[in-house]
């Protein structure tokens, strides 16, 4: 008897007939053989094999706690029965045990990603994202992607003393990153920047609700290359506010030392521009009360007629883009362009002033 052909008459699974032929034309003999298919023990059979399986729930479907390789899935806990029964592990919940639980809720926009583990936004750390990273300025906050609320109140550490202070950060005007260090409102000036900050309740960090005057040491400690004067109520009827960007620090660098030793300082050939990219080359000056008839801050395009002894300010202010007389508001009698219109016809202490003016540095 020589086997030359074997074929299944039906398809698996189940009982199958096997026909065997001798290959000749005579004495054909057919044997009927009943085949029984049996499973080999392994993953998915509901029999836990401790040596090779962490679980076996009787199937090879993932997402129910025991995956197709008989491994326990993240967020699940399985017993050692046969078949295995799985449920959410401690710290996990949800229909598929993928929702982490944090005993202390994640703060400041943080997300609970694992049991008692928060994924914090840039600028925050700690088990519940309750520790704010100490950046030195609003510009550093912006550069590090931590300006998660846009413009608003933030904490910074300009002096590196680990003592955080509240400041308002303008994260929108001219690219943002401005630390607001001075702001007047409601017809009241915030006064001279170097004076001690009053504790009468009128001063704070938010220029939207009160006057702002950053402490002198904090102001000088902020690394800055430029400052901006923002009119929150613009003289231009077509814009809600106007601003003048100045490519020089606001009392930064050696200017503060010179001011307090010589009572005046003049920064020459400084570039300024407005929101419509109109620009000019100007002189920027600071002066103390010892300078007769001088204002403590101003920007002018032409200093013709100014007193050389006091270096800066006043004498009519016809060429001034920004002028402050003592504690008066920021006023202007010369427009740079559409983005910085003139705000007063004259330039004296009685001139009409802007209701709200902010100064920011970055």
Could you name the key traits of this structure?
3 helices, mainly beta, elongated, 362 residues, eleven-stranded antiparallel sheet, 27% strand, three-stranded antiparallel sheet, 22 strands
Task: Explain this structure.
The protein is mostly beta strands and 362 residues long. The chain is 6% helix and 27% strand. It is built from three helices and 22 strands. Strands 12, 13, 14, 15, 16, 17, 18, 19, 20, 21 and 22 form an eleven-stranded antiparallel sheet that branches. A hairpin with an 8-residue loop joins β1 and β2. The longest helix has 8 residues. It is elongated. About 6% of the residues have low confidence.
What does the main sheet amount to? Answer: 11 strands, antiparallel
Mean pLDDT: 83
Tell me the Rg in angstroms. Answer: 39 Å
Number of strands: 22
Termini Cα gap: 99 Å
Structural class: mainly beta
CA-based shape: elongated
The sequence of SSEs as H and E is EEEEEEEEEEEHEEEEHEEHEEEEE
Helix percent reads under 10%
Poorly predicted runs are 11-20, 27-31, 35-39
Strand content: 25-35%
Number of helices: 3
């Amino acid at each position: 008897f020589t086997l030359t052909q074997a074929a299944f008459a039906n398809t698996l699974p189940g009982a199958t007939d096997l026909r065997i032929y001798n290959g000749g034309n005579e004495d054909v003999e057919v044997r009927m053989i009943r085949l029984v298919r049996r499973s080999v023990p392994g993953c998915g059979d509901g029999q836990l094999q401790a040596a090779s399986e962490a679980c076996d729930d009787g199937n090879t479907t993932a997402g129910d706690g025991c995956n197709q390789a008989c491994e326990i899935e993240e967020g699940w806990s399985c017993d050692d029965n046969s078949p295995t029964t799985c449920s959410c592990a401690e710290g996990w919940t949800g229909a598929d045990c993928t929702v982490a639980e944090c005993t202390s809720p994640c703060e400041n926009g943080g997300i609970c990603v694992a049991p008692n583990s928060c994924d914090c936004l840039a600028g925050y750390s700690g088990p519940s994202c309750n520790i704010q990273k100490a950046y030195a300025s609003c510009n550093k906050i912006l550069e590090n992607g931590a300006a998660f609320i846009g413009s608003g109140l933030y904490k910074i550490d300009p002096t590196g003393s680990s003592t955080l202070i509240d400041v308002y950060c303008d994260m929108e005007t001219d690219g943002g990153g401005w630390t607001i260090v001075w702001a007047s409102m409601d017809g009241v000036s915030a006064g001279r920047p170097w004076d001690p900050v009053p504790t009468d309740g009128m001063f704070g960090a938010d220029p939207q609700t009160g006057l702002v005057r950053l402490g002198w040491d904090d102001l000088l400690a902020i690394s800055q290359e430029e400052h901006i004067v923002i009119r929150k109520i613009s003289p231009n009827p077509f814009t809600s506010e106007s601003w003048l960007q100045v490519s020089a620090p606001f009392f930064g660098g050696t200017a503060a030392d010179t001011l307090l030793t010589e009572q005046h300082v003049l920064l020459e050939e400084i570039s300024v521009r407005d929101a419509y990219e109109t620009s000019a080359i100007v002189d920027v000056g600071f002066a103390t009360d010892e300078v007769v008839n001088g204002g403590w801050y101003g920007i002018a395009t032409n200093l013709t007629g100014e007193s050389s002894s006091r270096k800066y300010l006043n004498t009519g202010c016809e060429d001034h883009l920004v002028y402050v007389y003592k504690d008066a508001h920021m006023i202007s009698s010369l427009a740079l362009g559409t983005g910085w219109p003139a705000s007063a016809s004259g330039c004296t202490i009685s001139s009409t002033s802007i209701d709200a003016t902010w100064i920011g540095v970055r």
